[in-house]
Amino acid sequence: MSRIPITIHNNKEGKPDSIIIKVRTYAGDAIRDQALKFPYQEQLIAKTVTDEMATREGQSPQGKQLCALWMVHDELELQVRPELDLFTLAKKWPKYLEKYTHNIEAIDNPNSEYNTFIYIYKREAIISRNVERKCTDEASVRLFYGEARQNVLIGRYPCQADDVTTLAALQMQTMYGDYDKSKHVIGFLSDSDSLNEFIPSYHYGSKDPEEWERLIFEKYQNYSGKSTFMARMLYLQYTRQWAFYGSSFFPACKTSPPNGLFQQRTERWVIGVNDSGMHIIDLKNPKILFSQTFDRMKWQWTSDTIVFDYNSQRTGKDHHLTIITPQAYLINSLACYSIKYEEKKNLLIDMQREKTKKQDKK
């Protein structure tokens, strides 16, 4: 428990006085860690924390509904339901790790660094792009942009070199305002070692730093006059075109790990689940390995595997793909929830159309 980001502080008399919880946000062009302080109570409900975070960030009521608190580890990310107690979940965390990563160290050594996690306030697991587009308050756009930028940089959103320079140019506009030819010259980024804040590491070595800067500045000029808010909106518009945008990610591999230990797997794949389908991404050399909408595939799962049956749009042939992941249960649950959410939304739309038709007849 000593490594968890939620602690009880005592007063001078040694009695519990307050609760301190550390929460991370992808705050636009930076990662920000905040310490929130609450009066001591036996429980701290997740909604109490998300309400405070929404207030601090300045989100609208609509934007607040699209974000959630997450418990995040290198191998496991869990969205916390609003009504759950964070102390109870923190105590259960080693069991969650053992169950969903199959690493026995989580249970055998509770004080191990492996049990460390952080809280992140970010996008809710299943919201459609259409819903997100309608949320345009500046604070929420900043958070959505920050999360998308982070996913681009770490390879969860694989992209081509042309995508990289376009997004980097928009990021320049958000950070530095309009292009200034006397200021934004070759060396502006590379001399300060900040180019890696704009270029994903897997792309970085494919061109000289000077060439990256030249390509970025060439596009950067096109966005002069755009406000920070508009540049972020354009960044989001660009990334939302990708099928995997807005995914929640789960570690996976195809080849059986050495000695059957998932943490020793040689492939670093993730399965992304969003409102439209499932996607497999290779993080070692970021690229899309598989991407299908829910209506074009079927799947079955066990505690250790998930099996996809689908028809390739490219070849027209049926395929059978078996993936190893101790988080198959979570993947299936999120996918089923997404499908039900979409069905419910479509039903409401149909009901509204019927209501409109009846009113028009009158």
TrEMBL record:
Gene3D superfamilies for the chain: 1.20.80.10, Phosphatidylinositol 3-kinase Catalytic Subunit, Chain A, domain 1, Pleckstrin-homology domain (PH domain)/Phosphotyrosine-binding domain (PTB)
Domain of life of the organism encoding this protein: Eukaryota
GO annotation, cellular component aspect: plasma membrane
Residues in FERM domain copies: 19-362
Signal peptide range: none
SUPFAM superfamilies for this protein: Second domain of FERM (SSF47031)
Name of the featured protein: Second domain of
Originating species: Neocallimastix californiae
